[in-house]
Amino acid sequence: MSELEKAFRKFATYGDTAATGNDMTGKNFSKMLKECGVMDGKCVTSTDVDIVFNKVKNKSARNITFAEFQEAIKELSVKRFKGKSPEEALQATHQLMEGKEPGNVGATKTVAAGAVDRLTDTSKYTGSHKERFDESGKGKGIAGRADMTENTGYVGNYKGSGTYDKTH
To answer: Counting C-beta atoms within 10 Å of the first and last residue's C-beta, which end of the chain has fewer, N or C?
Structure first.
Protein backbone atom coordinates (compact mmCIF):
# COMPACT_ATOMS: atom_id res chain seq x y z
CA MET A 1 0.00 0.00 0.00
CA SER A 2 1.46 3.35 -1.04
CA GLU A 3 1.77 6.40 1.21
CA LEU A 4 -0.94 8.12 -0.84
CA GLU A 5 -3.34 5.21 -0.31
CA LYS A 6 -2.61 5.25 3.44
CA ALA A 7 -3.45 8.96 3.55
CA PHE A 8 -6.61 8.28 1.50
CA ARG A 9 -7.75 5.62 3.97
CA LYS A 10 -7.07 7.82 7.00
CA PHE A 11 -9.10 10.69 5.57
CA ALA A 12 -11.82 8.32 4.29
CA THR A 13 -12.51 7.03 7.81
CA TYR A 14 -12.23 10.43 9.51
CA GLY A 15 -15.40 11.46 11.36
CA ASP A 16 -17.35 8.34 10.34
CA THR A 17 -17.24 5.33 12.62
CA ALA A 18 -19.00 3.13 10.03
CA ALA A 19 -16.57 3.96 7.19
CA THR A 20 -14.46 1.10 5.84
CA GLY A 21 -11.71 3.26 4.33
CA ASN A 22 -12.36 1.95 0.81
CA ASP A 23 -14.34 5.00 -0.32
CA MET A 24 -14.38 8.68 0.62
CA THR A 25 -17.18 11.22 0.98
CA GLY A 26 -17.10 14.65 -0.65
CA LYS A 27 -16.68 16.34 2.73
CA ASN A 28 -13.62 14.26 3.59
CA PHE A 29 -12.22 14.70 0.07
CA SER A 30 -12.50 18.46 0.46
CA LYS A 31 -10.96 18.29 3.95
CA MET A 32 -8.03 16.25 2.69
CA LEU A 33 -7.24 18.64 -0.15
CA LYS A 34 -7.54 21.64 2.15
CA GLU A 35 -5.28 20.22 4.87
CA CYS A 36 -2.68 18.92 2.42
CA GLY A 37 -2.40 22.29 0.69
CA VAL A 38 -3.81 21.27 -2.68
CA MET A 39 -6.84 23.53 -2.25
CA ASP A 40 -5.20 26.93 -1.89
CA GLY A 41 -8.19 29.20 -2.50
CA LYS A 42 -6.61 30.80 -5.57
CA CYS A 43 -5.79 28.19 -8.22
CA VAL A 44 -7.93 25.42 -6.69
CA THR A 45 -11.05 26.51 -4.82
CA SER A 46 -13.66 24.50 -2.92
CA THR A 47 -15.97 24.87 -5.93
CA ASP A 48 -13.34 23.29 -8.21
CA VAL A 49 -12.95 20.42 -5.74
CA ASP A 50 -16.72 19.80 -5.61
CA ILE A 51 -17.01 19.89 -9.40
CA VAL A 52 -14.15 17.40 -9.89
CA PHE A 53 -15.53 15.15 -7.13
CA ASN A 54 -18.94 14.99 -8.83
CA LYS A 55 -17.30 14.45 -12.23
CA VAL A 56 -15.27 11.39 -11.20
CA LYS A 57 -17.85 9.60 -9.05
CA ASN A 58 -20.61 7.41 -10.44
CA LYS A 59 -23.94 9.16 -11.00
CA SER A 60 -25.78 7.27 -8.27
CA ALA A 61 -22.84 7.06 -5.83
CA ARG A 62 -22.15 9.43 -2.95
CA ASN A 63 -18.53 8.37 -2.42
CA ILE A 64 -15.43 7.87 -4.55
CA THR A 65 -13.07 4.89 -4.57
CA PHE A 66 -9.28 5.13 -4.53
CA ALA A 67 -9.12 4.77 -8.36
CA GLU A 68 -11.62 7.63 -8.77
CA PHE A 69 -9.66 9.60 -6.18
CA GLN A 70 -6.48 9.23 -8.27
CA GLU A 71 -8.37 10.44 -11.34
CA ALA A 72 -9.62 13.49 -9.43
CA ILE A 73 -6.12 14.28 -8.15
CA LYS A 74 -4.80 14.07 -11.71
CA GLU A 75 -7.32 16.71 -12.82
CA LEU A 76 -6.73 19.01 -9.86
CA SER A 77 -2.92 18.79 -9.92
CA VAL A 78 -2.79 20.34 -13.41
CA LYS A 79 -4.88 23.22 -12.10
CA ARG A 80 -2.86 23.61 -8.89
CA PHE A 81 0.59 23.58 -10.53
CA LYS A 82 0.13 25.59 -13.72
CA GLY A 83 3.18 25.71 -15.97
CA LYS A 84 4.35 22.22 -15.05
CA SER A 85 3.78 19.16 -17.18
CA PRO A 86 0.89 16.93 -16.04
CA GLU A 87 3.33 14.31 -14.73
CA GLU A 88 5.37 16.86 -12.74
CA ALA A 89 2.18 18.42 -11.37
CA LEU A 90 0.88 15.01 -10.32
CA GLN A 91 4.18 14.21 -8.57
CA ALA A 92 4.11 17.57 -6.74
CA THR A 93 0.53 16.92 -5.59
CA HIS A 94 1.43 13.41 -4.41
CA GLN A 95 4.31 14.87 -2.36
CA LEU A 96 1.89 17.29 -0.69
CA MET A 97 -0.49 14.48 0.27
CA GLU A 98 1.75 11.56 1.20
CA GLY A 99 1.95 10.69 4.88
CA LYS A 100 -0.69 13.23 5.94
CA GLU A 101 -3.31 12.59 8.60
CA PRO A 102 -6.53 14.45 9.32
CA GLY A 103 -6.05 17.04 12.02
CA ASN A 104 -8.56 18.75 14.21
CA VAL A 105 -7.91 22.19 12.76
CA GLY A 106 -10.93 24.10 13.96
CA ALA A 107 -11.51 22.13 17.15
CA THR A 108 -12.83 23.92 20.20
CA LYS A 109 -10.17 25.97 21.92
CA THR A 110 -10.02 27.17 25.52
CA VAL A 111 -11.64 30.47 26.34
CA ALA A 112 -9.40 33.54 26.24
CA ALA A 113 -8.63 34.37 29.86
CA GLY A 114 -8.78 38.14 29.32
CA ALA A 115 -12.47 38.14 28.49
CA VAL A 116 -13.38 35.84 31.37
CA ASP A 117 -11.38 37.92 33.86
CA ARG A 118 -13.06 41.11 32.70
CA LEU A 119 -16.55 39.60 32.93
CA THR A 120 -16.04 38.12 36.39
CA ASP A 121 -14.33 41.15 37.97
CA THR A 122 -16.86 42.07 40.70
CA SER A 123 -15.35 45.54 41.21
CA LYS A 124 -16.83 46.57 37.85
CA TYR A 125 -20.40 45.45 38.72
CA THR A 126 -23.02 48.18 39.08
CA GLY A 127 -26.55 48.53 40.44
CA SER A 128 -28.16 45.68 42.33
CA HIS A 129 -25.49 43.22 41.10
CA LYS A 130 -22.86 45.10 43.11
CA GLU A 131 -24.72 44.29 46.36
CA ARG A 132 -24.32 40.53 45.84
CA PHE A 133 -20.56 40.60 46.57
CA ASP A 134 -18.43 41.89 49.44
CA GLU A 135 -15.31 44.06 49.00
CA SER A 136 -13.04 41.05 48.34
CA GLY A 137 -15.29 39.84 45.49
CA LYS A 138 -16.66 36.86 47.40
CA GLY A 139 -20.39 36.27 46.98
CA LYS A 140 -22.72 36.92 49.93
CA GLY A 141 -24.92 33.93 49.15
CA ILE A 142 -28.66 34.17 49.81
CA ALA A 143 -28.19 37.48 51.63
CA GLY A 144 -26.90 39.02 48.42
CA ARG A 145 -29.75 37.67 46.28
CA ALA A 146 -32.87 38.08 48.38
CA ASP A 147 -34.22 40.88 50.55
CA MET A 148 -34.30 39.40 54.02
CA THR A 149 -37.34 40.58 55.98
CA GLU A 150 -37.38 41.09 59.69
CA ASN A 151 -40.51 39.65 61.27
CA THR A 152 -40.69 42.20 64.10
CA GLY A 153 -44.26 43.32 63.45
CA TYR A 154 -43.22 46.82 62.44
CA VAL A 155 -43.62 48.36 58.99
CA GLY A 156 -40.43 48.55 56.97
CA ASN A 157 -38.35 51.76 57.41
CA TYR A 158 -40.10 52.56 60.73
CA LYS A 159 -37.58 54.56 62.77
CA GLY A 160 -38.97 53.96 66.22
CA SER A 161 -39.00 50.18 66.24
CA GLY A 162 -38.42 48.65 69.66
CA THR A 163 -39.34 51.83 71.59
CA TYR A 164 -42.90 50.87 72.67
CA ASP A 165 -41.88 49.12 75.85
CA LYS A 166 -39.70 52.05 76.92
CA THR A 167 -42.54 54.60 76.66
CA HIS A 168 -45.31 52.56 78.31
So the answer is: C
